[in-house]
């Protein structure tokens, strides 16, 4: 108890320590991700395949996260470390920039630390982001960056801050398309405030818009020519459980929106109640210029999501889609507490300990789950032995380095990228991958898939045909490989085939 008391006193005196603790947490997250499994999650596997190319667009997602991942992999090579570094660095920067934004509008510096901890308290940040998110993480950073630049522009209007805001908007728009809701909501939120409203009707907004346009132009041109590819996947995901009844489908969508709002906000509210107790309840009526602006932004964002869902007939709206908007909640609650003059002397410690338990507990859960799950006959993506399978196949022909690997799924493709960094990886569902050229078809390649008893999947066979390879002339084989951490009890069967250069051509 004495140690906890000393920590509490230190946090009360120096709340900025929180940011160093968060930095240490993300360093730990990178280390544990490297240690817990060599297998890949869905988004990680896709990033490894897509990071072979620097493109203006990557299917249904804007390119910002892919560009960052491409740059890091160019520096470090394809690896779990490169994947985890980008993700956790963005999450840390989100917290750091969010703290800078909070300092602009909060008088109590302890509340700044609480606001940052409130970001970690969000399930999308402490749970989903560590499990399998990429572009949503880039959007969280973009929202924090925009919030800082926007508030600076409102408080200290200068050409530099206007340009910074334009830059932040541009980053957000190439991070994820739903980011556009945030700056629109911000503009609408300051319209009722006479002093702040002047910032909209300022000539400096024109060069800010020019910066935004310059950042978005390359991807925008790509988007115009690939609109269907960029939007179909998202719309299909929103209508995943469509019944065909437009009224029932929309009601279902609104229901999932309500559930997503509750699941995203209740943990944060619960932790704020632990930290402030009665003070939080009493602060509900407190108001200031900034509580009105941030509160209005949050409300407008959620209303906009609901209207978009209704317009597209969405049956499913997930919490991760709301995370860029719900990240405003911790700052809003802190502004309410600041306006009420709430006692924050013990708030940082009261917030830190449960948030740390949540965040560190989930890291431990994922690491232990990979080991304990197989003993109970339960396997997840991080137990898939794609890497060991590829190493066994390559060891059988150690004198040959395939020039390319054609993988039926992203998990095999991503693992092949790590095992064979100099080989070109082709995945049929990533349509922007160039087909094999004449020179490549004349070299040895490797075809890999997960075996289900029916041989090579039809879709893979058709893709091989597109690449000038006759699947019927290939000598296929299978290999059973134990699940990771299963001690050999259960296996996965993979199929593979070597192409012998011209011998594999039709």
Concise synopsis of the structure shown:
The chain is an alpha/beta fold and 506 residues long.
Instruction: Return Rg in Å.
Output: 25 Å
Distance between the termini: 75 Å
Helix segment count?
23
Task: Label the structural class.
Answer: alpha/beta
Shape: globular
**Percentage of residues in helical conformation:** 55-70%
Strand order of the largest sheet: 2-1-3-5-4
The count of DSSP E runs of length 2 or more, i.e. the number of strands, is 5
How would a textbook summarize the main sheet? Answer: 5 strands, mixed
Regions with little confidence, pLDDT below 50 for 5+ residues: none
Return the string of H and E elements: HHHHHHHHHHHHHHHHHHHHEHEHEHEE
Explain this structure.
The chain contains 23 helices and five strands. It has 506 residues and is α/β, with parallel strands linked by helices. Strands 2-1-3-5-4 form a five-stranded mixed β-sheet. Helix 14 crosses helix 19 (347-375). The longest helix is centred in the middle third of the chain and has 31 residues, at 246-276.
